[in-house]
Predict the structure of Rhamnulokinase.
Amino acid sequence: MSVLAFDLGASSGRAVLGLLHDSRMEIREVHRFSNNPVFAGEHMHWDILRILHEMKQGLLKTKQAGERVSSVGIDSWAVDFGILGKDGELLGNPYHYRDTQTNGVMEEVLNKIPAERIFQKTGIQFLPFNTIYQLAALKKRDSYLLREGAHLLMIPDLLRYFLTGEKQHEFTNATTTQLFNPVMNDWDRELIKQIGIPEEWFGPIVSPGTEVGMLRSEVTKELGIRPVPFIAVAEHDTGSAIAAVPATDGPFAYLSCGTWSLMGTEVKAPIINEQTLASNFTNEGGVGHTYRLLKNIMGLWIFQETIREWEREGHDVNYDKLLHLAEQAVPFQYFIDPDHSMFLPAGNMTTRIQEYCIKTNQRPPQTQGEIIRCILESLAMKYRYVYELTEQVSGQSFSGLHMVGGGIHNRLLCKWTASALGKPVYAGPVEASAIGNIIVQWINEGVFSSLTEARKAVKESFPVLTYEPENAEAWKEAYLGYVKYTNLAAYV
């Protein structure tokens, strides 16, 4: 029995087949494509029709491989959306969450609606690019979208609409908008009204594992393929990744590691109180009526953007060589807070790292090895900070950390994270988002009776590497310096 998962990330997308052999899972990539944002005039957009074209190529290549999949699911990044007009046509390319339109907007909204009120209603972390602030930015400049729009769809919902003609909102992605009320288990209409957005843009919400339409006849004719049902999986890619964490005992801590790092734990109900508000945690929907109590961390974005900067400058950049140079550099010399606002935009990352160090009374890193070591050590330290904060706000204790996602290819990051935590790191599976997408489809089809059973199959099917802490005392001492220079000590 095979199913097809479209796993769309902020830099690339893939079509991945899920196959089952006697309860052992196998995945096979049938198509991969780049997902590059496009600057048009003053704004940064997603090339949504290019993504749709590439997804069709994935469907076509699946047919050419001789596979007859029983269903299809889509997961992607969160917060971004498209707006349909009254005739069902897309009104403009979706904005990229790094677009400058939201600069200063979150602060303006919080002056109008107290942060405590928004958090009480939604339980979501305050990030300047959240859907609520993107919509407030449209309202602020009196965008034509507000006059002509009839329906809002998050990115996976929008692509699914293109392919099926059906419009539904999926639960895990809806919760990320900061417009969903987990107590009401529905859109918070009062909050939507306060932002000044039409309520009718927001329709019914479906749970992961719900069948949400068939491949439309226009697409089957175009590609020469048979109709296939689409399943609403955990359409936020982190929701899919956490579904695939091979943890089978007790409470567990996870880190979904990629361009963004998302660290937290799985809970049965959202935790909305003064402590989670003060710590800026978020409560995002998960599979099986669970919630992901987590905190967003900038992740490998800084690392990736630094490499892109050097490539643009004409340097010969070799990934393995960079990690070797970082490993050879003197440890614990430079620290940054990856979540500082100066690291959010693209470009000039090396200069910003150096400026941050100078502003915090540190000597700035100079060589490639020093800069990469600064980034990766700082990430490992920030992971410890959030790991301990997660234990505090959840009231749970964890024996180690499950790391999943493409970021675990970075062996130094996994190794240094274990050392910073002073606890083992279990790294795997790499393709967690695609696997989570696949297992939700199989739960829908009755292949697995529950998420617990599916996670056991993941554990038996994919390799997991264990990293043990090294030089624990040195890392413990260095952590005190990290929280000092990054001004995080008050929260320890």
